[in-house]
């Protein structure tokens, strides 16, 4: 029996998540399992049913870019998910090294300190906090110094109360971790966090869905144990000279209570360090 490849696992998981009614196909009759049938994916992609079956079963390991593009269109993949599909097939060599470094350039540290009213931090590919400016460190202080945010979300007992929308935070970080696992398949930190959370059903269920996505620009609400509710708008930037690192900056609306809460956290942190 042929072992199912990572590409095959990905296609099978994503096929199960497609609502047949949204594809425009005539899909009458009872269905024993959710999602599309292999034959239906083949029709949507314009490939033979036998070829698609072989691809999903791991018996076809060298699809052409044109074939993958057709399958991506059939699934209506966005850019991140399409890129992940191609990387699983080995068709995006050279996009990034197999592993990423964890050294934060001094110039980036200086840049973060230039955001005195924003919470800023640098993530590694496994979403470990590699560095933070004072407000970023103060915001994440309940989880310790340089926390692993994936582990925080799924193992820290305070996480569900800290994140106002914990399910959305969990979905986003797992999808982003999946994307990075395609970019950096040999990264030891990614491999370690996936292994460490293998007994956490909330993580493994999301990981099995094979969702893929970069961290978006988004609004987040936190409930900080010292400062209370804090609403921030986040922007995420790839660090060009350190593949795998991302700078995330969260800002509060000027004059808002959230801005006051950040200022308070910064003042408390300064007093603690001075003392």
From TrEMBL:
Phylogenetic lineage: Bacteria, Bacillati, Actinomycetota, Actinomycetes, Micromonosporales
Protein name (Swiss-Prot/TrEMBL): HTH cro/C1-type domain-containing protein
Superkingdom of origin: Bacteria
InterPro entries reported for this sequence: Cro/C1-type_HTH, Lambda_DNA-bd_dom_sf, MLTR_LBD
GO MF assignments: DNA binding
Domain (HTH cro/C1-type) ranges: 35-82
Organism: Actinoplanes awajinensis subsp. mycoplanecinus
CDD domains: HTH_XRE
């Amino acid at each position: 029996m042929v072992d199912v490849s990572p590409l095959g696992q990905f296609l099978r998981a994503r096929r199960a998540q497609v609502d047949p009614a949204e594809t425009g196909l005539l899909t009458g009759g009872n269905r024993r399992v959710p999602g599309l049938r292999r034959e239906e994916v083949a029709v949507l992609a314009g490939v033979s049913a036998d070829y698609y079956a072989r691809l999903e079963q791991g018996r076809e390991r060298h699809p052409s870019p044109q074939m993958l593009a057709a399958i991506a269109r059939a699934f209506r993949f966005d850019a991140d998910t399409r890129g992940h599909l191609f990387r699983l097939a080995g068709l995006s060599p050279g996009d990034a090294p197999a592993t990423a470094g964890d050294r934060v350039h001094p110039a980036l540290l200086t840049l973060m300190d230039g955001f005195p009213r924003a919470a800023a931090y640098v993530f590694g590919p496994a979403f470990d906090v590699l560095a933070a400016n004072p407000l970023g460190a103060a915001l994440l202080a309940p989880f310790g110094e340089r926390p692993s945010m994936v582990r925080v979300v799924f193992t820290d007992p305070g996480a569900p109360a800290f994140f106002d929308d914990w399910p959305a935070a969990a979905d986003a970080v797992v999808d982003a971790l999946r994307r990075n696992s395609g970019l950096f398949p040999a990264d030891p930190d990614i491999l370690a966090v996936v292994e460490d959370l293998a007994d956490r059903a909330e993580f493994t269920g999301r990981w099995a869905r094979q969702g893929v996505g970069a961290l978006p620009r988004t609004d987040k609400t936190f409930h900080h144990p010292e400062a209370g509710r804090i609403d921030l708008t986040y922007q995420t930037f790839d660090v060009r000279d350190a593949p795998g690192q991302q700078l995330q900056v969260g800002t509060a609306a000027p004059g808002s209570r959230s801005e006051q809460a950040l200022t308070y956290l910064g003042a408390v942190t300064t007093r603690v360090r001075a003392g």
